[in-house]
Amino acid sequence: MKRITVIGTGYLGAVHAASLASLGYEVLGMDVDAEKIAALAAGRPPFFEPGFDELLSEQVASGRLTFTNSYADVAAFGGDDRANTVHFVCVNTPQRKGEYAADTAYIDSVIDNLAPLLDVPTLVIGKSTVPAGTAARLTSRLRALSPAGDEMRLAWNPEFLREGYAIEDTLRPDRLVIGVQDEESEAALRDVYKPLTDTGIPLLVTDLATSELVKAAANAFLSTKISFINAMAEVCEAAGADVMLLSKALSFDPRIGGRFLVPGLGFGGGCLPKDIRAFMARAGELGADQALAFLKEVDAINMRRRARTIDLAREQCNGSFLGKRIAVWGAAFKPDTDDVRDSPALNVAASILLQGAQVTVYDPKANDTAAKNFPTLNYADSALEAARGANLILHLTEWREFRELDPNAVAEVVAERRVLDGRNALDSDLWRAAGFIYRALGRPSAV
Ligand code: UDX
Q1: Of the four, 57, 105, 248, 409, which is 20 to 30 A from 356 by CA?
Q2: Residues near ligand 1 with C-beta < 6 Å?
Q3: At residue 1, does pLDDT exceed 80?
Q4: Pick from 424, 413, 421: which is nearest to 437 by CA?
Q5: Atom of ligand 1 nearest to the CA of 275
Q6: Closest of 82, 15, 22 to residue 58, by C-alpha
Q7: What distances in angstroms separate CA 419 from CA 187, 318, 352, 380, 439, one per listed residue?
């Protein structure tokens, strides 16, 4: 039975580690953040992800899942059999400050710290999203720094998990992609993922560069699909048409499909926005910038959605936010997570605050993470509390809880019955029946 280490225990690494432990492997999770490691080791998730609480405590209790903040422990994991331990690297690759390109400093630092301690030929597998060519560069670095030299192996295994479905996507992914340079690495990875491939999950073997590009291309496609429907929303608004009906009609065509075709405030999060920018930057370096010029437009359409939401909200406030009380429902970049990285909801909330409104935010799980980043916004403990005395409610992250609220109960507490549905997810008929002026992006005011 394989031993596995997972370096970097964020949303991706922590879930990967616990999921692999649930398959029966002995797993060591490592992070330089001592606080995070202490929480994980005690079976306490440092972030919210559905099902992760139970999975983590089960796997920690089983003894198969342990944590450390020492690279020496990682390198020594497996003792005399450590050559058979495989090391997954799951650290993040944020956008570089003031640039489009990805910052690979964290992943470089993992190799720099770990390689000198790997004294027997070992397999290191990158999972982070990286610019094409990074894996080849890291292979040289790994070999140069490790006492095992050219016998060190590096593979790439991009991760496609969505937050909110991270466990499901890890244990039942649509596909596995492994970029390898030798048969031994392929065999080791096939072995790790055998419990998954045995259930029929396809595993594709590629070269390193292709495996890196699969991830970038997937995120570029998904972003393009969202911005496509949001561009249609702009045209619908101009033509007096209804983008929700348009999207539904398109979705019956199996070549198009309905997923990622929901118009609204657009995409955010720690992946799609920065990944399409990093992809453009890398294509530019490779001399293929024209090929991805369209992603600039995808990005621009997406950012315009935030501006349009603010404009529509201002219209609802008779042209000025000054002295208005605005309730913002949702702070996470999407439902079922407490992640607020590049959250469209918070971007809108903060802009409106700066334009003179009093803004009260409520999110079922992300109030704390939001308050750390935007301490000047007010935070409420419930949707109704946020709505109390409001001149306008902005529905900006489509949590189920908001759909299930009774608009009649909300009508009792607001100052004015106005709601702007930034996610096209509320039942407009119900809200109108409760006396609200309901507005949504890409839809005529009467729909
Ligand atoms: C994404 C990719 O889906 C995943 O494969 C990759 O590994 C990481 O990036 P994630 O960031 O967790 O995952 O969120 P995702 O579910 O893709 O949603 C991204 C954003 O798009 C969210 O802000 C969401 O609200 C928005 N979105 C999604 C839309 O605006 N409309 C849609 O139809 C779908």
Answers
A1: 409
A2: 159-163, 219, 222, 226, 260-262, 264, 266-269, 271-272, 333-334
A3: no
A4: 421
A5: 9
A6: 22
A7: 56, 14, 15, 18, 6
